[in-house]
Amino acid sequence: MTSAQPFEIGIFTFGELTRTAGGSALSAESRLADILEWARVADQAGLDVFGLGEHHREDFAISSPQMVLSAVAAQTERIRLTSTVTVLSSADPVRIFEEFATLDLLSGGRAELTAGRGAYLESFPLFGQPLDHYDEYFDDRLELLLKIRAENPVTWSGTTRAPLADAGVWPRPVQDALPIWLAVGGTPASAVRAGSLGLPVYFAILGDPQRFAPFAELYRRSAAEAGREAGRIGVTSHFYVEATSQGARDTFFPHYSSYIGQNMPRTGVLDRNAFDVWSSPRGALFAGSPAEIIDKILWEHEVLGHTRFLAQVGLGGLSQSETLRSIEILATDVLPAVRSALGST
């Protein structure tokens, strides 16, 4: 028997400009060109989702996922297009909805939006917003975004922007309801919020995957207690696949170590022993052969019950040829095997 919702696999990137293992810097222009090719290959190979994250720093090429996704929409045919994430706390929900509705129209109904607080705080001072109202901004603007999706015209009042009175928000998307996911950072409060609202969630798994099992259960329980049907769960992880386990790890280690050193300095220097532990069968890092990647996705599915997996690709200055090969293997070897094992089409 096939499941009603097939397991989906996709890729995403923040467009980071991590220096290569050799020390050379990537330019934003070349990185964006690379990303467009990743999207075309992912679409042609049969992956389900393509995502872009938002940062406002010199070492990232993407500050507006919706703008780059519009370019992707013009060069792809079927793959779904999502932000991973939109930093909603420092954005205007009216403008965000308009832009993603436009993306939906340009892509023929393929747009999604993932709302989150963001892993970095640079957007708050950049847009003149106080950090001491961090939580208030997110709650207030998520409420408005969801109301805009549900009603048009919309009447709303909150604490972080001017009220709206019978205001029309245009254009409207092709889809009846623009899909809005929440990025959950692994706290009980964020899981409860998502469940109470009945919104699908992403867990960004960088530590022990089993640590997220209680949050997945809390999410489902919160939805039930609110009288809602729980949405889908997605998982995001760092990723590289090659034909053999040893080849994948030998290729990826220097790049991934460089990425961790630049973007997660509190983690410290990532040596090869730590890298091998992270990429072990119960570790959070997906780096290995297709069989290892398949087994880990299926194991995490048993733990979390998720139905979407997004792989963060191109990390640490990995070459374009290696990144494209990894994307193709994910589509041609991993995705069909996972769907077959789970009885979905």
UniProtKB/TrEMBL annotation:
Keywords annotated in UniProt: Monooxygenase, Oxidoreductase
Every Luciferase-like domain range: 14-299
Presence of the UniProt keyword Nucleotide-binding in the record: no
InterPro entries found in the cross-reference section: Bact_Lucif_Oxidored (IPR050766), Luciferase-like_dom (IPR011251), Luciferase-like_sf (IPR036661)
SUPFAM superfamilies assigned to the protein according to its UniProt record, in alphabetical order: Bacterial luciferase-like
Short name of any one Pfam family annotated for the protein: Bac_luciferase
Gene3D superfamilies: Luciferase-like domain
Coiled-coil residue windows: none
UniProt name for this protein: LLM family oxidoreductase
Organism whose genome encodes this protein: Subtercola frigoramans
